[in-house]
Amino acid sequence: MNGLLAAGGATGMGGIILIYVVIIGGMWFLLMRPQKKEQKRVQAMLSTMEVGDTALTTSGFYGVIIDITDDDVIVEFGNNKNCRIPMQKAAIAQIEKPSAE
């Protein structure tokens, strides 16, 4: 009789562990997967960036990319040719390709 109770207790403990594994897996799927997907989208956007594209920075400024290096870009803001600011690629939030008109 005691052997039966001990076996039932072990099965119950395994069921609890299985529930925890399922909950943690569900949390990963709901929280981490979309973040990884967004990181891949941003990396793809930054890799297709070219000179002449319009960039929206994370601070909300629009500018035209005039030079690209490995980690940095130089962005020209407004009509003033003297307003050229170097910034990290991570500061680019969105890229707009020039329209073919």
Automatic annotation (TrEMBL):
This is Preprotein translocase subunit YajC. It comes from the Bacteria. InterPro entries: Preprotein_translocase_YajC. It is found in: Cell membrane. One of its GO terms (cellular component) is plasma membrane. Keywords: Cell membrane, Membrane, Protein transport, Translocation, Transmembrane, Transmembrane helix, Transport. It comes from Faecalicatena orotica. The chain crosses the membrane at residues 12-31. GO terms for biological process: protein transport. It is a single-pass membrane protein. Belongs to the YajC family.
